[in-house]
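Thread title: Can someone regenerate the structure for this chain?

I was given the following input by a collaborator and told the matching structure tokens would be attached. They weren't. Posting the sequence so someone can regenerate them.
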Amino acid sequence: MATIETRRNTDGTTGYRAKVRLKGFPSESATFERKTDAKEWAKQTEASMRQGRHFKTAEAKKHTVGELIDRYLREIEKKNPKRFVDVKPLLGWWKGEIGVYLLSDASRALIVEQRDKLLNTKGRNVERRSNSTVNRYMTALGNAFTVATNEWEWMEENPMRKISKLSEPRGRVRFLDDEERERLLEACKASASPYLHTLVVLALSTGARHGELINLHWSDIDWQRRVITLHDTKNKERRLLPLAHYALQLMEEHNKARNIASDWIFPSPSHPIKLWDSRSAWLSALKKADIQDFCFHDLRHSCASYLAMNGASLAEIAEVLGHKTLQMVKRYAHLSEAHTAKVVQSMNERIFG
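Best answer:
Regenerated them for you:
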């Protein structure tokens, strides 16, 4: 039930205090200069209580965006430390820009305004941030808002729910041609690092990410089944990497010369309990092989491209790379045109004779 009280202020003006008491809910009150505003507030507050929306709105007026980000980071640091490292700088930017705003004032218009500001400011080593980079900032904030809405009930709805992502270019497909591959592997063989050649061949053979390979333990290898088990992958699911042909041969040789003081497959030569930092050796090999516009992750693209050109279907490529959907591997579709044409030809011959 709502009541309106008339109050005389110290400066002689009249104010109005609205109170809402509803069984099962704590009482709520607010003061207004106009009686019509007091009545409208009381009406909306009572309706919100009956519909179960009021306390989310009230919580949104108690907490700032900065408080939300701080709590979210504390929780994610415990649950997913790797994710925490990735999103901390992104959410740190948002906290610096809109951290002082109450959640009730975190409107779509405000977020879009800041998104456009981010898009048109310089990033690290770039004059203008790309759409892809800005989308990552938006996703990080959106995930935090989702948790605050669904789990903490600090908000009635996620203000980013109806904000569209910026369009992104098609995924990069840079792979080594035959000559480049030969030059790179020769440079890796000649490297002062005893691990580089094996690491690069393993990446080309399995399509695994650098982080997945560099964090491998000898206990992850099943020599009888000839597979490596990845326990900590990007999509949080275990994945098997088949060991075959040259990669298997190199890993067997590497195993014979392993450092028994460490279970890491690629330990630091000077500190076996630490991981090897491959960056310097990798960049030197690229320079020696005269490979331009190429990063370690492109070895993964090279593996997928070779699979496509050798007749693997998109579903098979997705399984090898560990993608849950075909969306990420559609970039390789044009490389399997010959295989697709062969399948269509075979089907036509069978049904039409």
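The mean pLDDT is 85.
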